């Protein structure tokens, strides 16, 4: 099945979101554990930051406009009373989350997966440039593996392909946001109607882009991890 064929999942249960995740917050590694809460929040757990070597209380709720949307709050973290992360659980496998967070009005991407930690090699230091979005990426979202190849044309413009085994190759065009150098929007010429990927580049290592894909049928959390 292609990611572009996905439907919004039915009403989800707490256990669909519960579990232990490896957490990638703008490239910073962490460990998140979530379980059902009998208090005010639907989920409660803990977050361990490998960066700070600290552990924090976590509360989370899901549902809303999308049944697979989750809002995770890490308390007393990163200089804030609580930092909130909004993401989307993968509808089919239900083992990954991708989305965005805001730290003091600045937008950053994150993704998480129910798997052992995986170190992602850094790509380039310094301020983000449109050329940092060029390269070959592995797409992590429902619908099986896919390869995304992006080329920097000029200015803020990008083009490329989205290819999935057995699903063909689809043209991609996009542009880096004029005001936010980490934010990109990619238009994918997908079967069944156009799809749009909205994602943010990991600001420091520049080794991944995370956000979501909007199709005519649903919204899907998705991350692109750089190969080269």
From TrEMBL:
Highest taxon listed in the record's lineage: Bacteria
Protein name: Uncharacterized protein
Source organism per UniProt: Acrocarpospora phusangensis
């Amino acid at each position: 099945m292609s990611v572009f064929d996905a439907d919004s999942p039915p009403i989800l249960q707490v256990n669909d979101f519960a579990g232990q995740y490896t957490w990638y917050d703008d490239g910073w590694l962490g460990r998140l554990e979530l379980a059902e809460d009998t208090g005010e929040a639907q989920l409660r757990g803990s977050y361990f930051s490998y960066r700070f070597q600290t552990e924090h209380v976590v509360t989370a709720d899901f549902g809303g406009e999308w049944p697979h949307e989750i809002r995770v709050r890490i308390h007393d973290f990163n200089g804030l009373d609580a930092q909130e992360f909004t993401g989307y659980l993968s509808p089919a496998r239900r083992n990954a989350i991708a989305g965005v967070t805001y730290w003091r009005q600045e937008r950053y991407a994150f993704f998480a997966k129910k798997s052992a930690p995986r170190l992602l090699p850094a790509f380039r230091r310094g301020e983000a440039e449109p050329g940092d979005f060029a390269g070959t990426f592995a797409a992590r979202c429902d619908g099986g593996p896919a390869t995304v190849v992006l080329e920097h044309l000029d200015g803020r413009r990008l083009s490329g392909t989205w290819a999935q085994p057995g699903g063909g190759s689809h043209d991609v065009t996009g542009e880096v946001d004029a005001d936010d150098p980490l934010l990109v929007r990619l238009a994918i010429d997908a079967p069944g109607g156009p799809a749009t990927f909205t994602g943010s580049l990991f600001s420091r290592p520049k080794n991944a882009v995370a956000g979501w894909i909007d199709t005519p049928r649903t919204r899907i959390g998705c991350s692109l991890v750089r190969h080269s």
